[in-house]
Amino acid sequence: MQFNFDRRVADSVPRSWVDEAPLGLRPFLRLARYDRPIGFWLLALPCWQGLLLARIGTGLGWVDLWYAVLFGLGAIAMRGAGCTYNDIIDRDLDAQVARTADRPLAAGTVSLKQAWYFLAAQAGVGFLVLIQLPLLAIGVGLAALILVAAYPFMKRITWWPQAWLGLTFNWGIPVGYVAASGQIDLAMIALYAAGVMWTLGYDTIYAHQDTEDDALVGVRSTARLFGKTSQSWVAGFYGANAILVGIAVTLKLASPWFVVVYALYAAHLFNQVRQLAVNDGAKCLALFKANRTSGLLLVAALLVASLL
Hints:
Layout: H1 26-31, H2 38-55, H3 65-94, H4 104-107, H5 112-130, H6 135-157, H7 161-169, H8 172-181, H9 186-207, H10 211-217, H11 222-226, H12 230-251, H13 258-275, H14 281-289, H15 291-307
Helix pairs in contact: 2-3, 2-8, 2-9, 2-15, 3-5, 3-6, 6-7, 6-8, 7-9, 9-12, 9-14, 12-13, 13-15
């Protein structure tokens, strides 16, 4: 089977600070996706959202600044570890997909043994961050390992790997919430469900970059499942997200001022839906990356609610 590796999507050959790093480090930095920081944001933002939701009604929105820093560091370490693990499992598939053929393991610039060592080092950093949290939050955080370990296999057995990614990437909500409040409640569950819906939307958009190659190699995704109806599905996921966020904050009896920034957040999500063109890989990538702004807007809305 032949694949056209000249047909590249915009994020296949990025230029970033990684290209100026020492030559020997570049493959490892690319393996951990340091040249594509959007993943770090999408892992850290749910943690911060969980922290802030826990503080609504207390007027203590800034009290968890140290935890926020820890979660930022942990997101960098664990996103890198997750990408490394994912590439270890997917190295043969990556070599057959145009957008991922240049990844270090697929291209042979990092050996499998080196990748496992690098994975262990990053996971070690993540563990050092985790043990700074309260005991219950540590336990909740460790439970995420099951989700992380299973994720690379989901695209092989279900049309909904984006749902599993949503469960995984938003696990920071319960970890952050429990770290700040010491409990699990309906507000936290509603925000976590909202995060899963958010990820289902943005990762469906992202997966539309690869639908042709995924079909050739047998990889499943919601993008392939929904096809030309994806715009309606993404609108539904984002709508469910907006409703669930509203439920979570209502359960916490937030100040009405929350609505001002929350409206901007919801408008940003639905502007993505309006612009979505599933056959335009560059546009899909840009809309996917726009979710850093979406996530920051929700953080800002929750911060307003936690301070007032």
